[in-house]
Structure formats: C-alpha cells, structure tokens
Queue: 3 jobs
Job 1
Amino acid sequence: MANEIPAQAQVVIIGGGVHGCSVAYHLAKEGWTDVVLLERKQLTSGTTWHAAGLVGRLRGDTLSTEFASYGTEIIEELERETGQTTGFRQTGSVTVARHPDRMRQLRRQVDYARLFNIEAYEIGFDEIQERYPLVSLDGIVGGTWIPSNGSINPVDLTNALAKGARGRGVKIFENTKVEEIIIEGGQVKGVRTDKREIRCEFVVNTSGMWARELGRRNNVEIPLHACAHYYLVTEAIPDLPKNLPVLRSYDDATYFKEDAGKLLVGFGHRIVVPYGENGIPEDFSFDSLPFVEEHVMDVMEEALERVPVLQTVGIRTFFNGPESFTHDGRATIGEAPHIKGYFILAGVNSTGIQCGAGAGRALAEWIINGRPMRDLSAVDPARMEPFQSGDLYLQQRAPETLALSYALHYPGQQRHTARNIRRTPLHHALKAQGAYFGEALGWERPAWYGPAGSEPTPDYSFGKTKNLEYSLAEQKAAREAVAIIDYSPMGKTEVEGTDAEAFLQRLCTNNMAIAPGRLVYTLMLNEQGGVESDMTVARMSPERFIVTSSTGRRRRDLNRMQSHIRPGEDVRVRDVTTASAALSIMGPKSRALLSELSGADLSNEAFPFNSGMMIRIGYAEMWIQRLSYSGELGYEIYMSPDVAEHVFETIMTLQSKYGIKLLGTDALNALRIDKGYLHWGTDMAYTESPHQLGVDFLCKTKKEIPFIGRDAYIARKSEAKGPYLYSIMLNDPEPLLFGREPVLHNGKVVGQITSASFSYSFGKATALGLLNFQNGPIDNAYVNATDFQVLVEGKAVSATVSKRGFYDPENKKVLS
C-alpha cells in the first residue's frame, strides 16, 4: 500500500524540518526517488515551525553565502512546481550601527558582497529614516542597505520542499520514531523504527535538536546543543507598512520584521542558557519554553529605544523556543568519519531557514556523486575532536555561540568558555613569559606575548593595536636573531610496518623513498586531484615514518591514512601527538644557538635542509629536523614531555646572547604569508589542485607507485583552470587586511584574500589570495605591471601582486 512503510529504500532521511525536506527534494530532483523521510511527530514540529524566517543572502563566509543565495533563487521554481506558496517577501534589509567599529565591520561586509554580485550599500541617516521610518537614529553612526534580503514563512517553505519531494516519488512518514541506525562492518545497513525495520544504503541525520543524541547511539559525534532563544510579536500596529524592510541593530542585539500588520522583534541574547541538558523531552512537538524575564529585559529596553512605537503598543506573544547551536558557530554537513553511508546535516546556528535549501542541496550532491561537489571542509564532521561533542563542553560553548551571534567580531577574538582543556608541557613556562593564549581544538597556544611581568590583555580593533606591536617585535626577532614557538600541538602520526613506504607512496604526492634521517614536504590528494592535506614526513628508520600535520588537520589526516590501509598490508597508523613536546626555533642566529647548546655539527654541509638526527640539549636527548615555516633558517626539536621544561630553560639561558624572543601564532602567520607558504583550510582545501597553488613541484607523477589523484591532477593541470594563488601586498602602509577582502583588477573583481597579516619586513599588509583570470595564470612581469586593488572598508587600495612570495623568493635564507 502507498501509505505503508517500505522494508527497503536507497536513502532514509531522519527528521522532517526544513533540512530533511530539502535533502529529500534535491535527491528526488536528481532522480533519486527511492527515498524515505521519517519524522518522529509532524513536519516542522521541532525548531522549523517557530523560526523567525529571516532571509539574508550575505553571510559571514563563502559557503553559507552560497547556501543563502541559492535559498532565494530556488523559491520561484519551487512555488511554480508545487503550487505551494513560501511566503517569501523581498523587502530588503537595513542594518544600523551604534559604534564606529561596527560601521567598519559593516563596510567590510559591503565589500564582501562584491564577491557574489550581491547589491549592498552604505547609506546615510536620511536614507535609513526613509527606508525604515520607525527607527530612532539616536546614537546611530551609519547603516547599510541590502535590497535582496527579506523574509519567508518557514512552515510554508518546508511544506513546499516536502510537496516537491513527494511529487517526485519520495515517501514521507510522520509519527514514526527511529529507534536505531543499523551499522554492520562500518557501513549503514538500515534503520529500525517503532513500526518496522527499513534496510538502506544511506542514512541522513537531519533530526535537529535530537541529532546529537541519535548520533551518539553509533558513536557519531555531532557538536550541537539546544539553547533558549526569544522573540516577541506585538499587537497590530495601525498603518504599519507591509513592505517594511527587516531592520537589524546588532549593537542593540535586536532585529525587527513586519509580520501581518504586527512587528516581530527578535533578540541576539547576552544572557543565554542551554536547554535539554538531560535530553529533549520525548513528547516535544510544537512546544515553547517558559519566558524568563531577566534573560531578555536588557535587550528589550534597547529595542524600545531603537523602535519607539514599541513603547505604545501591546505585546501579543512572548516566545521562547529552543534552537541548536554549535561549539564553533558552523554547521555539521557531511559523512561521518568512520561510518560509510551515515550523513549529517545539523547545527546551523539559527540560520536553518536562510541556508536550509542550499545545505540540503549540497548534502544531496555528496550522496549522489560519492563526494562533495563544493568545498565543505569548514563544516566537515571530522573537523572536531571527540570531547567537543560532550555535554559539559557544549553546555558552555553553545550558549556562547548564541551570545556572540550579534556581537562585534574582531580579528583574532577568542572564546572565553571551555578553555584550558589541552595544555602543552610548556604551558606554564610560556604563561610566565607573558603569553596571551589563543585556542584551537582545545589546545591553548600563545597568540602573542605581552611585556614581561604584565598581564596580557587583548586590544581588539579593526585598526592597529598593541597586539600587533608585540607581533611585529616577534617577527623582527625571527628575521634578525632567534624566535621560538611551541609546536607541541602539531599533529604527529606514526606510520610503521614493512609496507609503510609503499603505503605512503600511494597516499602522498612526493617521493617517499627517502633515506632514514631525511624529510620531505608532501601533499595528499583526493581522487579528483584536490588537496586533502599538506604535511611533513620524516623517515626515522626503514619501517617507521612520522607524519607532521597542522593542529587542525591531525584528526582528518589520521582518519584518511587509517581508512586507506589495504587488507593484508603491513601498516600500522597511530596518533602520537602527545608523545612528544616540540619547539620550532628560527632565525639567522638559530644555527649558532643550537650548535652551542648541543655541540653538534649543524653546518649546512653536515646538516642540510630536510635532514633530521638525534642531538642532546642539557641532559635531554631529542630529535632535531631542519625545517622552517617562517622563511628563515629554522629547526624543529622533538623531546619527551617530561624534559620539555628543562630543555626550554636551558635554551633561555642564552636569551640575551642571541636575542631570543618567544613567538606567537600571529607572528608566525605573518612570516609564512610573507614567504608565500600555504595554510590548509584558508589558502587551499579539497577543491584546489596543486597547480593552482604553485606547489605542483611536490607532485612526482612518474613514481613507480602512483599517488591517489594523480591522473585527475594531470588532467586538471592540462586544463589550466583557475583560480590561482598569488601573493598580494598593499602599497599603502596604513590599511589592514584580515581575509575575505575582494581583489580588483582594473576595477573588476577577480578574487579574494584568503589569509592576511601585517608584515614587519615590508611595513605593510601582506596576504595570499585566489585570483581568477580569463586566460589562465599570468606571469610575474604582467602581474606587477597591471592595476590591482584590494577593497578595504569601501576604498580600493592599490596593491602589488606576485606569483611568488615577497620574502626571499630565491630561498637563500631557508637553505643557508
């Protein structure tokens, strides 16, 4: 019978909100109609039904902007196909700023809109008042206008997606609870519901607030937690214009939307509490939470001042509904790391209606094609550590994500909750030296060092700060004397076995048939020729290698290597990150320093670049390898954690003699950008191929054992399609770059900044950027002779562009 749950399907989707219905619709649209969607209660009954329904095309990153833009583009087609209205109204949106720094941030957002051909403008007081007559301009310093924004009815949008899916053959069953996802041999085999079992190839967890708990049943980590989220709806307001734009006042933590002759007022909370600490109630359906006055009254008072008509109109509804927020403000979209066929779309941080259609399409594409068709690295389920899906961690971090949703987001700003989880053996010694710590995957890492004996306090701004002054001094030491950074959080993976070399030859682009005591920098590619990772590999013995990855790549690299071991292959792969502490020591005097400390012959002839050996400093024996991420002569030393402080103290006895300064991640970032060195996740990811990044010299295509992705890489290189990575320097020493700024060539947008800093060596902002030219890559002479600018807060700033890094392009310092 048509209404009977089938015993088998190709795909089972769990959750009937906007995401589940979007995945179903987009699968069916591509011909995948053997799809079942299961909803525990009724469609939209979790979070979707009470969403405010704001639609804003311009988001904070490329991926979510693409999702949100698609969400508005599909509406007309969806309504025409299904006959179901979505309630979409393109009224535009006005955003006002109370603080000068907020206005600077808004100008950068207007710049960012140029990358996507989204109309966005800075507007003055008269136009703000004209477009939103109800607003009070008291304390306002400026505003912006985006005409393509608006609002939509979340329930109608979801029903339209569901109707479109049904019309193409998808079966949707409400009041059906999934009790278990069946996994056999690391592969999805089906789901067990309260009515029957369904065998399937793919499962999609789009169960919203319940996604984390459902994932845990199969050891799938999904870092989200529900939090209380408020809005109110007024009584009817006489003569309220129906075409009133959405008004956002981030500094007041409020937004305002016309809603059938009333105003819906939403809050970006400063006081946030988690919901469902002991699990979401079993009978939750179209439910709301109690209104707690002290959670919103401070923001409510600011709303009354910003839109004074609220002072004279009654409140029809105070609403408090739970929404899911994540530890890092990013969704989780993709396949679970260890279970084939288990897909996730969850934790969208109150942007589900705006991004739901686009996110659902992206996940459907992945399922259909067996791989993501766009760069989803930022939302990859494998990006987080296991503890980041734990209750205690999320009950602290998720509320902070909501609290920060309307806050000013300064460059380098750090989270405050759930800190000091992972500390290196040198943490306390570095803290005593004035370290200000940033956090990455729970690791506390010095971002910069304040003056000795002072409490390091961050100075957040879009201009030049004390932090920058400290970073410049650290860069100076690296360029002229000696600088040292704690490398202990870097990912370290041991690959061991009689087949270890052949295994790494297959995974890595470079030639791994190196002698013990030698190192090689290499890439791992995917089957499409995109960069999965970059890493350094040291051969410790004939059958043992140590792979060093960035902190953020460690888990993904470990997963990838483990998943590629073939049956019968003598290869063992294990994480050894915490088995050793590490220091990177760089600068023109670093050789003299380490030679004096160790007594070893570290001359260029005896110890060339990409070499490693054992030495002794003080009483401790350690591995030293000659590498540099700074563009200077440099070394990395690895020692057992118990002797790390002893080694550090021994080194620092020579601080005055060699001008040693401790280095933070801010300064290291600037050094590597000057040099043109890449960082995975900012300058490259799954979608870029080595030839686009200037690292095709790492691809040894004639190796006896071909590397994964070789043929795809060769084909892509022959096509010569961009974008290509370039080094970029502003010609004006005053403006700062932070990433995402549009790059112009003769006035036309050709790409964007991927990573940026301010350079001690050049006294200007330097950056890397992906640029696209009609006729493929261009040579250095042409680049330097043409007219380039970077948009910075509405101004086109003249820039120099080069295919090579600006600092020591001949590598004389690194190889000296």
Job 2
Amino acid sequence: MADSKRPDLNFEVGYDLKSQKATFSIGISNIFERVGKRQFGFSASRWWTKRKGKVDAKHLLPLTSATRPDGREEEIHTQRDQQLTKVSSAVTQLTQDADDWITDHKPESLNADTLKSDIRAALNGALAPYRRRFQDTREEFVDSLAQYQEFRNENNLRRHAEVPLFFLKPFVILLALLLFETLVNSAIFAGISAQGLIGGWITAVMISTVNILLGLVFGILIIRYARIMEGHYKYALMAAGGLLVIAATFFNLYVAHFREVAEEAIIASQSGEIALTRAMAPRFNDAWPHFLQNPFNLGTVLGVALFVIGLCVFGWATYEGYRGFTDPFPGFGKVGKRFFIMRILRVGLEDAARQAGFDVLDRARERIDTSSRLHSHFKNQVSIAVSFAQRLSKAAATAESRINNHAWSLLSAYRSSNRRQRIKMHRKATRKPIANLPDPGDPPNYFDEDPRSNGQWVSVVPDADSLAARAGSALDGIDRNIETLDIARKYISDLRASIDEQLRQALDEEDMTLNRQAAEIIDIKPSKVKTIKNEAA
C-alpha cells in the first residue's frame, strides 16, 4: 500500500495467480527526509521562532516560576507530537500490513503421517479397479489352468505348449513362401510360355499352391496324428504319408519335365521346324510321354532348380503345418492357447496396475514438488519481511530522532531569543526604575531542561518486534513443512521402488498363488516372474 501523502514510503503485497507466487515489495527511501525542512508549520524558519520568543518575552510569557511550556514553545511541542503521531501511525499500519500478509500466506502445518496416509489411499484407490478385474477373470483362469495341467498329466507331457500367440504368423510365412516360389517359378517359366510373363506367373502360382497344400496336409493331418496313433491307424497314416511324399516328389519332377517339353517346343519354333502358335503351345498334361519315358532324367539346370525349389517349399510348408499353427501334439495347442491367453491377460493387468501406481505416485510427487517450491518462495518472502521489519524499526527510530532534534533546535532558538529579550528588558527596568518599565524577571526554570534527556519526550514510535517474531514463527513453520514434504517425497520414492510390494498388498493371495503356479507350469524361473501376492500387513 502506498500513501499518496508519503510517496517516499512504499509497501506492496499481493499474489500472482498466473505464476502462483506471492509478491512482497518494500520501498523506503529516507521516508522522513522532508522532516525539518523550512516550511510553514512545525518546520518554520528560525527567525520566525526567534521573533516569537521576543514577543513572548515582552508579554512576560511564560512566567518566571512556570514549570510547563507556554506560548510558542507549546506550539512546538504540539507540532512535534503531531509529527510523531504520523510516524507512529505509518509504522503501525505498515507493521500490521506485513503481519496480515504473513498471517494470510502462512501455510498450514503439514503432518507426515497424514501425507503418507493420503498417498497410500490414492495408490489403493488406483489399484482397486484392477483388483476387481483380477477377480472377474479369476474363474476362467483357474479353469484354463486346471485343463492345462490335466491335459499334460493325461498325455504325460513334460513340456509346455508351443502356441504361436500371433495367429497370423504361419499365414504370413506361407504367403512369403508362395510369393518366393511364384517369383522364382514365373521367372523360369516366362521364357517358355506362349503367354509370356503372365502365362509363366499363372503356371508358377498353380505349382506353388499345390506344393504348399501338399505340405500342409502332410504336416497337419499325417505327421501330427501319426505320432500319437498306435496300431493299424499309425501304419495307415505312415503309408499315406509316404504316398504323399512320393506324390510331391513326382509332381515336382513332372513340373520340371513340363518345363523341358515347353522349352523344346520353343526352340523348334525358333529354328523353323514347326510353326508354334498359342493354340498349338504345349499344355501341362502334354508332358506325360516325356515324363514316363524317364522320370528322373532332367536335362536342364532350370529343370533341376524347379524340382529342388518345389521340394524345399513342400518341406517348409510341412513344417509350418506341423508346428506353425498350433502345438505338434493334437489338442494340446487349443488348451495351451487358452491358458496362455489368460496368463498374458492377467500379466497385462498386472503391468497396467503397476503403471497406474506409477502414475499416481508421479502425480503425488509433482504436487509435493510444487508445494515445496511454494514453501521455498514464501520462505524467501518472509525473509524479506524480516528485513523490512528491521529497516522499518531503524527508519522509525531515525525519524523520531530527527523530529526531536529539530524540535529541540526550535526550542533552543526560542529560549535563546526569549532569554536575551528578558535580560535586555530587565536591564532597562533596572536602569530606569522611575519609568516603570516591565521587568520579565529571570527565565523559567524549565528553560534549562532538555526534554530529550530528562525523559519528557518518551518514544512513541512502536517497534517491529512483534512482526519479527511473527516472521520467525512463520519461518519455523515453513522449515517444518519443508522437512515434512521431504519425508513424503522419500516415502513416494520408497513406494515407487517397491511397487511390486504395494501390488502384493493391494491384491489377493489367490492371485499370487495362481501366478506362481502358472510360472511353474510354463517352466519360467520364479525370479523372472512378477508374481502378485498378499502379504500380511
């Protein structure tokens, strides 16, 4: 607050909502510098004061036996009191403003246990929905776990199911195989196809599709079931498998012979032996005589390449059919996939709960950091208030001293003039007694007293001790709060470091047991599994 009548005295307090910082500024620049200047009133010039002393002496004022000031001296005392009242009011108002500011902005006392309890409650509140979701999926997870264990025990399986959780993976691999063989075969057939590149590509797609289908049938229906069948069924599947391998071999041999027949026709057409048209171009079934003549006689490198590539694609498709889509053991993949999906779902819930706990702790730490910064800022402002109290007390004492000294200088001038006038009038009256001149007599006794030293002028300016005490109390409270915030910050760090422990305390013992059993079933070391258990508080 700034007083327009005292522009040298400025004291401003406030709060910036945008930056969330308190503002506290003081400006004291010789606030009583004008005191004692020569202006009408208390600071009147000395000649006017001396003149008034002479006039009072002629009017025999004050009396010789007077003990209290009278005349002009009384006016000096009155004006001195008025000036000190202004100083006292200013100091009182500023002190009260500073005190009110400290009181309004003083933070409430924080309790470490309360902060810890609030942080714990917020963490438990964030984890509560995940506990319900764990309970909702528990029954199905228990059922899938029981079926998985039962299937393994019934079939004497000592391993866990091999299930591609990404169900599109085998399809992607098979499409890649199809694309690879198609590109290679189309390049090989392009030179001998009457339709050119398109004809070669169509032929290559047909051949690649047949090889992949044969491999899938061999892997899915024959190898997988032949391993678990016994007796005649097993021998029948083995015989069917052998026939399927022979069929795949001879199919790829036939493809190679077809390529050679088509190439011979193209060469004969180029040499003029025959007129090869699109209608007369060799068809796929025209290679039978050449194939039956000697199936294993391949006369070109490209024919051998077709045969090798076809068998490789057949073998890879067989492997994907055997192990790519599901577990090699029939039925185990379906049971294992259900169990693994439920396992992954619950592990995902645990990770989500862990992340939710981290988010809550991060928000709490951010709020505590913000509170700590505000406390530190307010501490600096209170320190400024303490400095202000010291400067205000010193300035008030200086102002009072100046006012007293100036008043005493006027009193001294008045008394000196009055004393000289009395001596002069006394001499005249003594020399001419018959003239009956007025004789003021000796100066009053109080003329020899200095009100500054005899205790007459008691200091009326209030000190700033109460403000300093309030500021000190605020500083102590701020320091205690900062220590409490540090404790809460360390508590958050401990919770973050032991988030798994918090999850164990927030979730059920049954969830811990299920996760441990699942980890043991799929042969994962317990040290590498994030289990969820509930420890006694």
Job 3
Amino acid sequence: MSASTNSKFSHLPLSTSGPIECAVSGTVLLNTPYFNRGSAHSAEERREFNLTGLLPASIQTLEQQAERAYQQYISRPDDLARNTFLTSLKEQNLVLYFKLIQDHLTEMFSVVYTPTEGDAIQNFSRLFRRPEGCFLNINDIDRVSHDLAQWGKPEDIDYIVVTDGEEILGIGDQGVGGILISVAKLALTTLCAGIHPNRTLPVVLDCGTDNEELLNDELYLGLRQKRERGEKYDKFVDEFVKSARRLFPRAYIHFEDFGLANARRILDHYRPEIPCFNDDVQGTGCVTLAAIMAGLHVTKQKLRDTKMVIFGAGTAGVGIADQVRDAIATEKGISKEEAAKQIWLIDKPGLLTTKTELDHGQQAYAKEASEWEGKEGSLLSVIKEIHPNVLIGTSTVPKAFTEEVIKEMAKGTERPVILPLSNPTRLHEAVPEDILKWTDGRALVATGSPFKPVKGPWGKDGSEVEIEVAECNNSVVFPGIGLGAVLSRASKVTDKMLVAAVHGVADLSPALKDDTAPLLPGVEDVRAVSARVAREVILAAVEDGVAQEKDIPTDKAEELDEWIKEQMWDPVYRPLKRVEPEGASRAAKAELKVVGSLEKVEDKAARE
C-alpha cells in the first residue's frame, strides 16, 4: 500500500493512505521507532523536524536500508544472535524492522518465532536490555488498572496479546520471560495481517514461576516465588480483563500460552462476554481443520462422514477436536454432543472413556466405558476398531506413529489424512518421509514444523513424484481472525466466525489444484490469506449480529477487500506532517507507549 490518498476509504481512522501527523522533532523523533527512518528522512523532513546535523548527509531509500540491515543480519553468528539483532532494530526503526522481515519472511520466520523465539524467552533475563510490553504483578492487583492505563486512551489500542508464561512454545513455564511470546505474536499479526504495530499491547501476567532454574537464577527478572494459583490467580486474571475492557473497549484480547488447567477455562469464561481468542485452543484447531478440509477435498470425502483419532488430549488436541466437532455439527445440522461421537481422544491412560479422570475440555469426548469393556485403548487398537480416515498427533511423543499404526490407517481408507503436529521437530510422532513410504505415497500429510519435500516412486506409472508437505502453522489463520475482529469491532468471536476463517484458508489450499502440493498455503502467501480470512470473518460477524463497526461494505466482495486492505498497515515510509503539540493526538506526540527511549523520558521531564 503506497502513501497515496486515492482510496475511497482513505477517510477511515485506520487508513494507511496519506501523511502521518508528527508533533515531535530532533532527537525525540529519532528515538521514536514509529517516526524514525534514519538516513531515509528527506531533505524537507530534516529541515522541518530539526534533524539536520543529527544524520549523515546521504539520503537513502527504505530498500537500501533494508539491504544494509540484511547484510548486518546475516553476519550474526547464530539464530539467537539474529533474533537479538532484530529486536534491537525494532527499537530503532519500526518500519525498517518489518520491511526487512517481510522481504525475507520465509527465511526469518523461524528466527522471529518458533523455535528461536523459544531460545530468546528462555534467556530473557540474560538478554534483557530494554523493557517492551506491560508487566503486571499478581502481588499488585490493585495497580493493574493504573499500569494498563499508561498505554493510551480508549481509542489507542486495537489488539492485546496476554500470557501468564506457564506453557510457552513446548518449553514450559518461563515466568516473566513469557512477555516475549506476546511480543512475537503481535509482530506476526503485523507481518501477516497488517495490524498497526503502534496500536498493539503485549502483556505478561507475572504470577511467579514453578521453574526451579529460574527461581535459582540471580538474574531472573520476574517474581521470585512459586506460581500463584486458585482464587488469587482468578481474581488477577479477572482484574486484567475488566481493566483492559474498561480502558480499551475496542480492543481484541488474544490469550496465549496459558497452562492446560487454565487455558480453556479462561476462554470459556470470557468468550461469551468479550471479543477474545486463544490461539493454542482455537488457532490450532482452525488451521488443523483447514488442513483436514483441504485433504478431504482431495480425497472427495465429506467432513460430515469423518472419523478422527487425536493422539494427545492436551490444550491443542482438545482445541482441534472442538473445531472439528463444531464444523461437523454445523454441516450435518446435529448437536455438538452427537458430532463428538465421531472423534476419539487418546492420552497417557489410553482412550478417554467415562472411567478416565478427565478435565473440563476432555469430558465431551469420553466414550462409554461399557462399550470398550475388554478392548484395548491403545492407539493401534483404536485404529483397528474404528477405521478412522484422519489421524492427528499432538502428544509430543516422538515416533508414536509407528509403521504398523500408519499401515493400519492406510488399510481402512484409501487416502488417510495424517497430521503429526507436535513441536519441535524432534518430538514429531512421525516424519513425512516415513508416512509417505509406509502408505506408498497415498497419505495426505501436514506437520507442526517445516519439512523438505519428499520424493518417491508414487506416480501412476511408478515414476518419481515430489510431494510438498504443508506446515500447520497458526500464522495462516490467527492474524486474519484478529484483523477481521478488529476491523468489524466484533463484540465477541462466534463459532460462525471461526468456521468462516477455516473456509477462508481451506479455499486457498494449493492441494485443491494439485494433490502433490501442500494442504495449506505457505507463509510467503500469508498476507493475501489473512485478507481473505478477514473478509470471511467480517461477513460472518455481520451475519451473526456482532459487528459494531458502521458502514462495512458487505454488498460487493471487491469493495470489502479494498476496505480491508486500506486498513492493513504496510512497512512503507509515509510522509511526516508537522503538527503543533497542543491538541495533537498521543500518537503524534509519541506518547502511545511508555516504553520510549531514555532520551524521550528525559526530554518530557525537562519540558514539565
């Protein structure tokens, strides 16, 4: 999106056309990442904003800056050092940071997110330089509203990501370091869906930690106490949610990496009341359902007839079950209870039955113990008994999908959909090469981590065929859902909105045109995918009566697409328009966030 003003929607508050108002100058401007563009400031801006003498004489383009930044990036010795470099760049120049990653998204995705972000989170207290995000303390519940209020006025925040740091990226309890998962998720919403980066808020709820390594680390920056649970924890979460809603009534709240005992419970409690989302539950479920639907399209099967086994009944496994169940119920016009009968969950005790000790989310899928009397509840036994056509792995049990298990799947259905989703790669239930070898190339496979294409003699005449393996990456779905919810100002996120998002992704599956192509679009196409997902989510929100934004152009798809894209932030340098501080917005005065540089804080103090 250029900085032109020729869009019919350029009057919208989130429009990306035209100049940006700026009420600061000199070193304050250069120390504000949203305004600073370093050597790319034009001669006019340098004079207008008192930057002469503060910058080298040469004026460069954003593309030249990005090339220089890329050379600096690749000179770093390892991915963690590259991650730290990108963090430093973000603190200097927001547009350049996003431009660099967007230009190299496929290459850098694993550095700004999993697995490298997991390393950064584990080393948070050792790599710490400057705070980013809002740190809320369970021992200061009475200050939650005050601390959140520092981040802006009601109209300033669109998207909040909050975590309590208990179950981070498969690496467990990381305490206050969890702030970085909130930061990373918000970076993805901007990269993948154009959420305005200066209108987002990363939050960590510091409740202590049960990670002994952190508790014994003298450099650890969080509360040095065991993780708080029970009534005090619930009161803390509730105070955060109520304060966030009161202070930022238009904001969408994204819960991230909460522990198994809390993730679904919190989502179920607040979902009927506010626009909120849990990526581990709903995002994982949506992207997996999109892969399943694309696979079923290839096999010419119907979702309504699906029998699915999920190996690993934690947050992700139950979240996937919920999305598939809800979609089956919608397609067949039956109750969720009836649809749940087509899904079997297996965990450490074996098949979940009415005799198993179950948590809240698992109970809907428990099979009658009397029907399984005398039968084994192992993965292989269940497959032999029910002949499923879809097998999901969310167990983190490496190599659990043995040759015998995979071949049994292939016996029961011509083209089984098999999705080993556990992260990281070493915890995968099976690798694509083995799954395809054991099924003579018939299986339709997507994984939780990236894998290279697999070659084998699976052509109709025995010729060699290369099959591309999709990565079930939540980033193809959660940013678009968030964008749709933000732009429509949805009062809540409904089942219909989530199913619409799934269809938006599944309809763009490369496998629909070529069954050797991936089941899901890749990250290189993610902005177009997010725009499509947002469109479907907005239409569903309007249909469900939860869209609060006025004048959404729903009559023509092309017009709605333009309306969406006009409000998607792009990393381009828009002209700066000088405005006087008196009467200027907080954004113009560089006051949207309190994490500005020391110079900015000192400058403000001097003026006061």
